[in-house]
Amino acid sequence: MNKSLPLTSRAKTTALKQPKELFTYTRNIDGQHQYNKDNIHNNLSYYYLPDSKIDTRIDLQSGFKNFKKIPMEDDINTYPALLDQIIEYEKQIQQKLETDIITFRGIMTRLMSIPYNLQDPIDLVIVPYDGQLFMNWNFEIEYKRRKEQEDRQRQTTTKEKYEYIKKCEYSGYKFETISTIPDIWSNISRKYIETRHKLPVNNYEQFLSVIKTGIGNVKLILAGEIDCCWDYIPDNTSNSLSHYVELKTTKIIENDYQVLNFEKKLFKTWCQCFLMGITKIIYGFRDDLFILRNVEIYNTEEIPILIKENPLNNLKQNQQTKINCTSALKWYGAVVEWINSSIDKLDESKSYGLSYDPIKKSFNLTQLKDEENSKLRNGGLLTEKFRTWREEEIKNL
Question: I need a surface site. Which of 100, 120, 323, 324 has the fewest CB within 10 A?
Fold first, then answer.
């Protein structure tokens, strides 16, 4: 099978089902994942950065040399951990989780943003199993691509430029560290708040939310990282999503080119948060010396209007790349419906590759060879533990 979806495709509906949180889990400093039982939001951070603190010239490159960064392969290969958490949730509800597609929010963000991000390739694998579609990155291709990009940056730039690129990445994690606290404000000591800029920074620790949502008639389960909470977690934790915050950093905006560049970032962040039901986005703006200069708070629902009303978009040279959030959502709906209708979820003899080729500008669904199909079904994507759970143990509940 080889099917293509034209990039001009758009669904008739933009009716995204209201996201609801099902459960959460965490990744600790050792890279181990743990299910949060009883809807307790363990290891969730809370935003706290008073305006007066922003004026103290916070250095977002401080501690860079001691950054504890998770190995690339471990950061990509997190699908087995998601399946483990689904097992724990199904034990709790004592039944199979009903949905059409199970994947990560980051993957759906990439798919949704394709019409306005035509230069980046995408390679995914999809495995039909137990009446559902399990979708993740093609690990081998994704790892090779990221490794080549890393090597290319190291080899083709000066030492200073390469370090600057790495510091840009680091500054986002540093911003999270200096703008959050591990509990509500009243439970945190003043000493902790005043000295948190000295804390070591890592990208191991994560708090992840797993939600149910959908578009059109297609049901989705998405897992995504949550940066922090704005205020509190309500008693009805299915409504937690509206209390979460997405944290970002970017360079201060000083000219029209940077305005348009920031708009592209803001669009991707909107995709990220809209799909997850996160209503608040906080951007930290830094200068070339990585000094935090300003912080801006955006409501997710207002971003499409901000982008639409940007006067620079009306310039003739920007018309072809003018971002339209409604159009992106209709494209996303078309993609999800196409995937769901093109693959027989009951046929477990096949697996599929989903790819976007930026050179050919083509979006294709292809059947994988038997060897790769077998590999994905036996540990490459579906773990033996998950298969045993679904085929044997769940029946004993």
Answer: 120
Integer Cα distance of 251 and 229 in angstroms: 24
Mean per-residue pLDDT pooled into runs of 10, the chain (397 residues): 96 91 96 91 94 93 97 96 98 96 98 96 98 97 95 93 96 98 94 95 97 97 98 87 97 92 95 97 97 97 93 62 92 98 97 97 97 95 97 88
**Comparing C-alpha atoms, which of 78, 62, 21, 102 is closest to residue 198?**
62
pTM of the shown model: 0.95
Which ranges of the chain would DSSP assign to H, the alpha helix?
Answer: 51-54, 72-76, 79-93, 105-112, 139-156, 159-179, 190-195, 256-276, 303-308, 325-342, 370-375, 384-391
Q: Give the 3-state secondary structure percentages of the chain, helix then strand then coil, rounded to 5.
A: 45, 25, 30
Provide the sign of the torsion angle of the four alpha carbons 256, 259, 261, 263, taken in this order. negative
